[in-house]
């Protein structure tokens, strides 16, 4: 395969490509199917070779195996080794004509088991007649391997017996345990072992005499010897860090490697600044100290000095962990941690007992105290001329608000924790904020600072710059928006004829995008939505999600309106425009999972918000009290501040049965989903009982929408499936009758079924537009049939955007193109179908029996013309 780019420059380093500063690559790249290697040299530009000697470097697994070589499109063959050296078997391969310029190869063990596919190698003629390869690694070398001594010094404080050093390669069959070590001064043990240069190795310590035989996985270290025997390791950014030729020093429990012997000469002073209200420790307190995750202690049972502070010395540049205990109890955390710089100053830190993080500055004296107000919701709200903040982050030792009006980290606003530890809270007069800003606070940016160090976005922010966790949240003044439809009242459900649309893929006319483009189609004299006689608009998810183009079912910020759609005011403009036109607005909300990326809830309180896993992301923890509060207030927030008229809840079966192994549940949670939905219902009813709660529950569980159930209506999956089958022409009349009858026999109340022939899933995940499945010449006719069945059946009708005109194209997940509304308005067939759809909608609205009919007998549908 040949790839072409422009103005490209790369360099070739022993057949592995490393990008140079220009970040360019050659004009021609050559690669071969089945191997990862890429070369800048045309294998056919040189004369082919008749013979190649292949050296395999293996610890033992492949010594009695075979070599397998092949070329693309041709059968492979096995080659046995001719001899062996200290590194492994040697294969003298006489090449066939098709192999003389390139071939692929891999090795088998004596049982006939191949190496993993990631080890597939490519040889090209430019490699020459002799090559070396390590087992289970794809790299090919034209130079013979060299071994040099690895030297590791280990200190395990408090241990009576030196540990063993366990050494291995991640991409090879090499693994060994070095049990013998040479004792050195100050308790250090010296290990040596010859390893290959230029290859990355890993090692950990094993102590058979300790209860925990292996040290923590966090202590896994990587090491490499360069060509001159220098010891190297890799930093967190994968950059190579050279440590020198004398060896490396490491401490049990931590992965830090030193190029010289470190000493425990860094002075630490700990001051207890506060204690969690649930802390049971009694004085006197004793301090135990470890190196990171070490199994043996560096210091044991330290007591306070005369000033009440605790002092000790530790090693710089490694993580030091510690915890306090008393005669009767220990802290309810694993350990506190700090990392000291390598300088001569004493490091003074502040500790909050039972909160793990260590603080560089003293927190407020009343760190644990209840607010003088009720915490209405998480996030930010205005009450009594104050901006009030609340954050659920139960493991933090300190939280502050920083933002435009605080000079960010110049003058942070300290928060306090409630006595029960559920919320951090703060308040500031609105006048102080506007004075600092010189005007309105609407749109001003802020973040929370955790433990006086880490900045995070507000998980319940009403507005964010974008979902990236490094971005900022923004304040919203909900009182500043001037609503025009001031007398709007949520309609009765019998009047609902719902039109589902995607906020950014509905229209792009007049250069508008996102929610404002939809508003344009509702307000402009030629607006398309003014020509569609739906009585309600159902928006696909508008909460902030990762990226800018999505269906929206990867929620990151549940209270925010997607920035790419225009943010909070754009949603208000659309709702206001719809209400002025007499149309209700429903929102699609996702309360079964959160996004697998840009997950702000995971960054502040993962143990509270999640306790299972789904195919789409971590599962919500439905029975946690703060999670219940978070999502209850989310619904009432949109009802009050955005005047939303109803909600569609995504895939509620995961909510209800999330503690079981059902479809889309990768790891069951603790349950509580039914009670979770009941609480949501109660919260909504307290604001307005006319707000519709609609479930997507597939397959249907009708008790969900019974009088005692938490939902008012659910998408009738059975109606859809029979409707689509009928439009395919599969037993058409009986299936059509079944679809219409379904809403009579399965439901106790007329509104429990929401009937649809198309939805975003049904026409997006599969090409199931009615006009498409109907077959040649039947699309518009059967779209009429589907519209009639949907709009005139017992239940609440729902149509997906484009169904009213016979749209036939699939609604792809990765698409960005909006509907061609100009075509919809100009094409005769599309206009005819839309007129039919509108007339059926008028018939439904003018006939009370169709709006909310009682039970009826099975309808009779004949097949006559």
Automatic annotation (TrEMBL):
Keyword presence, Aminoacyl-tRNA synthetase: no
Family annotation (Gene3D superfamilies): Glycosidases, Immunoglobulins
Domain Glycosyl hydrolase family 13 catalytic, chain residue ranges per copy: 500-844
InterPro entries tied to this protein: GH, GH13_cat_dom, Glyco_hydro_13_N, Ig-like_fold, Ig_E-set
Pfam family, one: Alpha-amylase
Residue ranges of the region described as Disordered: 759-778
Gene Ontology molecular functions: hydrolase activity, hydrolyzing O-glycosyl compounds
The keyword Cell wall biogenesis/degradation is annotated on this UniProt entry: no
GO annotation, biological process: carbohydrate metabolic process
Keywords: Carbohydrate metabolism
Name of the protein this chain belongs to: 1,4-alpha-glucan branching enzyme
Species of provenance: Candidatus Electronema aureum
């Amino acid at each position: 395969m040949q790839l072409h780019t422009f103005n490209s420059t790369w360099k070739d380093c022993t057949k592995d490509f490393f990008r140079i500063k220009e970040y360019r690559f050659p004009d021609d790249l050559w690669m071969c199917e089945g191997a990862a290697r890429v070369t800048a040299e045309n294998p056919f530009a040189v004369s082919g070779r008749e013979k190649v000697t292949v050296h395999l470097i293996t610890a033992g697994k492949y010594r009695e195996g075979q070599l397998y070589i092949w070329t693309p499109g041709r059968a492979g063959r096995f080659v046995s080794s001719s001899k062996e050296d200290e590194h492994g078997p040697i294969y003298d391969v006489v090449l066939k004509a098709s192999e003389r310029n390139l071939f692929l190869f891999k090795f088998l063990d004596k049982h006939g088991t191949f190496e993993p596919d990631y080890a597939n190698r490519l040889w090209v003629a430019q490699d020459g007649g002799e090559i070396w390869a390590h087992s289970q690694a794809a790299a090919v070398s034209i130079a013979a391997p060299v071994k040099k001594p690895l030297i590791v010094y280990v200190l395990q404080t408090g241990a009576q017996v030196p540990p063993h050093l366990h050494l291995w390669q991640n991409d090879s069959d090499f693994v060994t345990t070095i049990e013998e070590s040479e004792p050195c001064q100050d308790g250090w043990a010296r290990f040596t072992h010859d390893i290959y240069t230029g290859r990355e190795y890993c090692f950990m310590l094993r102590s058979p005499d300790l209860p925990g035989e292996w040290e923590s996985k966090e202590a896994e270290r990587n090491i490499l010897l360069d060509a001159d025997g220098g010891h190297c390791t890799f930093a967190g950014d994968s950059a190579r860090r050279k440590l020198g030729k004398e060896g490396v020093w490491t401490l049990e429990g931590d992965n830090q490697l030193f190029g010289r012997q470190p000493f425990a000469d860094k002075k630490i002073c700990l001051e207890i600044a506060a204690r969690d209200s649930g802390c049971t420790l009694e004085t006197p307190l004793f301090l135990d100290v470890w190196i990171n995750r070490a199994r043996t202690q560096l210091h044991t049972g330290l007591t306070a000095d005369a000033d009440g502070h605790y002092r000790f010395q530790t090693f710089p540049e490694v993580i030091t962990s510690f915890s306090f205990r008393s005669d009767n109890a220990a802290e309810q955390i694993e350990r506190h941690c700090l990392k000291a710089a390598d300088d001569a100053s004493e490091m003074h830190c502040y500790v909050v007992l039972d909160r793990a993080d260590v603080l560089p500055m003293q927190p407020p004296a009343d760190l644990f105290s209840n607010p003088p107000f009720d915490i209405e919701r998480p996030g930010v709200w205005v009450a009594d001329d104050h901006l009030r903040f609340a954050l659920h982050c139960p493991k933090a030792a300190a939280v502050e608000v920083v933002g435009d009006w605080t000079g960010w980290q110049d003058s942070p606003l300290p928060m306090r924790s409630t006595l029960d530890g559920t919320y951090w809270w703060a308040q500031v007069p609105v006048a102080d904020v506007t004075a600092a800003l010189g005007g309105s606070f609407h749109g001003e940016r802020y973040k929370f600072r955790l433990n006086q160090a880490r900045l995070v976005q507000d998980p319940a922010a009403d507005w964010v710059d974008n979902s990236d966790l490094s971005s900022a949240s923004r304040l919203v003044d909900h009182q500043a928006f001037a609503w025009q439809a001031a007398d709007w009242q949520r309609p009765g459900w019998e009047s609902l004829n719902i039109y589902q649309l995607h906020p950014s893929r509905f229209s792009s006319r007049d250069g508008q995008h996102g929610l404002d483009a939809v508003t344009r189609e509702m307000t402009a004299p030629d607006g398309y939505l003014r020509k569609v006689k739906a009585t309600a608009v159902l928006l696909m998810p508008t909460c902030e999600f990762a990226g800018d183009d999505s269906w929206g079912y990867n929620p990151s910020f549940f209270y925010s309106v997607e920035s790419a759609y225009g943010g909070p005011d754009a949603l208000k403009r659309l709702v206001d425009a719809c209400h002025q036109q007499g149309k209700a607005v429903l929102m699609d909300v996702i309360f079964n999972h959160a996004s697998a990326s840009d997950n702000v809830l995971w960054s502040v309180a993962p143990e509270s918000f999640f306790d299972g896993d789904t195919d789409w992301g971590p599962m919500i923890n439905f029975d946690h009290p703060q999670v219940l509060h978070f999502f209850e207030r989310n619904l009432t927030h949109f009802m009050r501040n955005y005047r939303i008229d109803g909600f569609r809840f995504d895939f509620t079966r995961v909510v209800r049965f999330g503690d079981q192994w059902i479809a889309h549940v990768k790891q069951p949670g603790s349950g509580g989903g039914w009670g979770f939905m009941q609480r949501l219902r109660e919260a909504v009813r307290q604001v307005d009982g006319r707000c519709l709660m609609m479930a997507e529950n597939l397959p249907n569980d009708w008790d969900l929408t019974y009088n005692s159930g938490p939902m008012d209506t659910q998408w009738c999956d059975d109606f859809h499936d029979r409707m689509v089958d009928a439009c395919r022409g599969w037993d058409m009349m009986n299936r059509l009758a079944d679809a219409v009858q379904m809403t009579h026999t399965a439901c106790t109340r007329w509104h429990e079924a929401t009937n649809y022939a198309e939805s975003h899933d049904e026409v997006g995940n599969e090409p199931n537009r009615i006009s498409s499945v109907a077959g040649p010449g039947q699309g518009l006719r059967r779209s009429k049939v589907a519209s009639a069945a949907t709009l005139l059946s017992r239940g609440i009708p729902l149509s997906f955007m484009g169904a009213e005109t016979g749209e036939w194209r699939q609604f792809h997940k990765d698409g960005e193109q909006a509907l061609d509304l100009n075509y919809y308005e100009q094409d005769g067939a599309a206009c005819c179908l839309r007129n039919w759809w509108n007339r059926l909608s008028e018939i439904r609205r003018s006939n009370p029996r169709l709006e909310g009919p009682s039970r009826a007998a099975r309808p009779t549908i004949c097949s006559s013309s």
